[in-house]
Amino acid sequence: MARSATTSLLAAEPDPIALDWRATALVIIDMQRDFLEPGGFGETLGNDVSQLARAVAPCAAVLGAARAAGILVVHTREGHLPDLSDAPPAKVERGAPSKRIGDPGPMGRILIRGEAGHDIIPTLYPLDDEIVIDKPGKGAFYATELGDTLRKYGVENLLVCGVTTEVCVNTTVREANDRGYRCVVLADCCASYFPEFHEMGLKMIKAQGGIFGWVSDSAAVLKAMAAETSDQPTMGASR
């Protein structure tokens, strides 16, 4: 699916950014049932999970466009092995008694790999040929194969979506920034249980001339993709 012209200018803050789509991946962080649906880990911590629902439709629109364009798609899931050997005690101890990581919940053991709650919500469910990264921490690079995968496909730019803005999204962007990736966070494709944390998380990323990256939104990405593909059949690199 090689192309002769692949670069688009994407409206973003603090400044527009030129993206080579062949070197760009869409990274969708932790859009899991345990975080977004009632009865999951997010709700057991006392959070209003409906706050995260606002990111689903914009994220789905960008995901559909990326699939149509042949852009590399990466999904992440935070969770742990059934024996909790990869979960630090300080993390497991969080939350109310009997509602902690590994405890039984409405969707299986909370935040445990292989359980229903650990999986990605149906609206954004990965295709068979899309990459799924299971991570034990907040950042998607820690103790995972994400770095090796991105290098394999020649990725330099990341379009970042997911939840929550101030935790796993911010942590992943900071990790990626330290590794030399250019990160564009799509504001309406991210969400937090706390709207004020969402806003501040985005401000941190684009502050000081884009200290960690750029902030854009789904409409800008869809417009840039449409402009690039108007006279081109596909935009992805061969995979």
Description:
- It is a single chain.
- α3 runs parallel beside α8 and α6 runs parallel beside α7.
- The strands form three sheets. A six-stranded parallel sheet has the order 7-4-3-8-9-10, sandwiched between helices. Strands 1-2 form a two-stranded antiparallel ribbon. Strands 5-6 form a two-stranded antiparallel sheet.
- The chain has eight helices and ten strands.
- The radius of gyration is 17 Å and the shape is globular.
- Helices cover 31% and strands 21% of the residues.
- A hairpin with a 2-residue loop joins β5 and β6.
- The N and C termini lie close together (8 Å).
- By secondary structure, it is α/β, with parallel strands linked by helices.
- Keywords: Hydrolase.
- This is Cysteine hydrolase.
- It comes from Bradyrhizobium sediminis.
* Helical coverage, percent range: 25-40%
Instruction: Name the beta content range.
Output: 15-25%
CA radius of gyration: 17 Å
Task: Specify the number of helices.
Answer: 8
Keywords: Hydrolase
GO molecular function: hydrolase activity
Domain Isochorismatase-like: 24-217
Organism: Bradyrhizobium sediminis
